[in-house]
């Protein structure tokens, strides 16, 4: 994997979608299934087991919007797989947003004069 | 080589530069500069920085994530550089520049390696493909890069890499190259099981686990039908054998307490013990062993407290210890929990009335507790950096040559992994493809005389007794 590539434009908050998308247990399960290859919704639902096909479809829609899952159509069937490049891009975007929030002092910090002082030693 | 990318961000804050600089490490700035914590803003100080990654959701077994590392350079009111090792290896550079008299321009730059990006993606739940099989003999390291256990596991991956590099330099294993895959259990048994299964799918013939006993148990269950050798290569409570393909190296709590009970009771001038630990098999086993040993040594247990892994507030426990009239507090807490507990004991003044025994006070945990708060804590482990054993000075030199002056200290927990990998390579060199039970039997066969580094007897119960002083953990005696 090459990570020396350009980092693209500065991200906005909602470009962190993927990390939000992954907060769900079923979505994480779907991703681990897709780690083994390309599957249809029915195949994924069979493997997940605990939820139905409609629920899996809506989870797949979230994952696709986040850019970590891609869809391929073949006739009437749709196949889903991981988008590795999307995942890498998303990880960079996530780190970028962490850095940006780290240098933003919350307003309340600046309102409290004693917040800027440290105890000696 | 791990390729590196650099990200940066900057902003202007309405504070003079000295005040802005002083916020770093104060632990009062919330998300600002990652809520960095350190005792002193000085080169060499250990630092922890909080990463807001999927919160700290214990309901699904997830702990918070911290960058653990060390300040490597400081220019007052101007620059701070942090080199971190957990959860991945990287560097963060902070620059503070005056923007007029009352404002400061702050710039943060982070060097991120490919393995850092890999870690983030896996942490997100995306199953990245594993490297395609090669002709090499593949082994796995299941370690802890995040959650409370990350503190004691800081140097584990480096020591495993050092062992593999040294095996490779000598021609590999029976003519085969030795290849290491690394996985993070995030101090979470469910992840330990999933990552262990992944290492097996990737073709690992053996997995070395530097994890909690809960994670090791989950790993053992997850791969119970697979032909893979499991080696628990850190201090553990023992027991629960899984046949010939499951081996548990490392210190045992009963031996530790037996070595320290009498000297501690003499020093404390009392025999009353309070046991503090966690609600899982390690502490349960350790406290059971301690009660047995103390019963035979004339000690009495006057209180016990067990908390969930991931506890940071020990006020209630500290109060109970103080109220119990105990002479000695034995802690079996591990990692960040132990750091918080020992700091809170010291802050509450418990050191004046009690002696402290910590079962897992390795060098890495010690430096996160800090010299002042850890002062006087005693422990007993099979290895310390302050180890008189033959070959130790040379090991320390090779480690520093390879990983630099800012890498975390070697400790018993990481050195045991180093020893275990070397021992494995020697044991299976005649038949690297033997099944796991064969490999396990070969690994247990006595090899070498015993105490020299690189050939340390991991089944013997030799312990060094050490006490925390201003410079670190100092070996004061030996047992076993």
From TrEMBL, chain B:
Alphabetical keyword list: Amino-acid transport, Signal, Transport
A GO biological process held by the record: amino acid transport
Transmembrane portions of the chain: none
Domain of life: Bacteria
Chain ranges of the Leucine-binding protein domain: 137-436
Pfam families in the cross-refs: Peripla_BP_6
Assigned protein family: Belongs to the leucine-binding protein family.
Protein name in UniProt: Leucine-binding protein domain-containing protein
Organism: Pseudonocardia sulfidoxydans NBRC 16205
